[in-house]
């Protein structure tokens, strides 16, 4: 997400090297990231920094690469977006292609027809959707004549709304969840406790509205509980937050957006072990959904 905006080409290459050397495989990108620069960077790294066969490339389609970043889930918009992504990435297929958030101006069947075309022609090995509500995913999965294997949604200790209907609908149709924002838009690292660091997204005019909803009220109390628990376990808050998330039912992976090599290294040091049950119960209790 940050490549081509906050992350230079040299820094992005270093991130990819660190990630793959640590055993990482899944890279998620989108047409709108850096107005196409993120895809172009990744394409230039494939075959040089890393072999194509070592990556699981996930691409979100259906948004413009410049201007207003307009959503376009029409058949033409989606397929044009896919072809442009393949060209920039320098590959003949993506491993997972995602339709964007539902487009009120486009019938569902039209969006599904684009996904089906990509799937049956092999330009996408698998297909799914992004930011669909539970009922929207269920309707799409029940209508499609091909498998939708993923719903890509925000999910973290600070954003558990997906548990109401998104996770159950995915489970009912044999799909998985890709969780974006797993660190609560950076808040679950603990770096915003008591202040907003000058170099953080929260201090940016562009990103501040994205971060601010998680800085007070219940999110603040959840973050404090996480930091207290992690201190007792001799862990960093982000480690505990990720371990809690990765063992939630139906979650296949977490999409992190590190801006620096050091941030990425710290994230990759997170153990895959589940959180001890008493700690998990406390985190569940303090962050439980209301209503």
TrEMBL record:
What PROSITE patterns does its record include?
A: ALDOKETO_REDUCTASE_2 (PS00062)
InterPro entries with a match to the protein in the record: AKR_Detox_Biosynth, Aldo/ket_reductase_CS, NAD(P)_OxRdtase_dom_sf, NADP_OxRdtase_dom
UniProt xrefs under SUPFAM superfamilies: NAD(P)-linked oxidoreductase (SSF51430)
Name all NADP-dependent oxidoreductase domain ranges: 3-271
Q: Which Pfam families match?
A: Aldo_ket_red (PF00248)
Gene3D superfamilies xrefs:
NADP-dependent oxidoreductase domain (3.20.20.100)
A single Gene Ontology CC term: cytosol
PANTHER family registered for this protein in UniProt: NADH-SPECIFIC METHYLGLYOXAL REDUCTASE-RELATED (PTHR43364), OXIDOREDUCTASE (PTHR43364:SF18)
Species source reads Arthrobacter agilis
One GO MF annotation is: oxidoreductase activity
Protein name (Swiss-Prot/TrEMBL) = Aldo/keto reductase
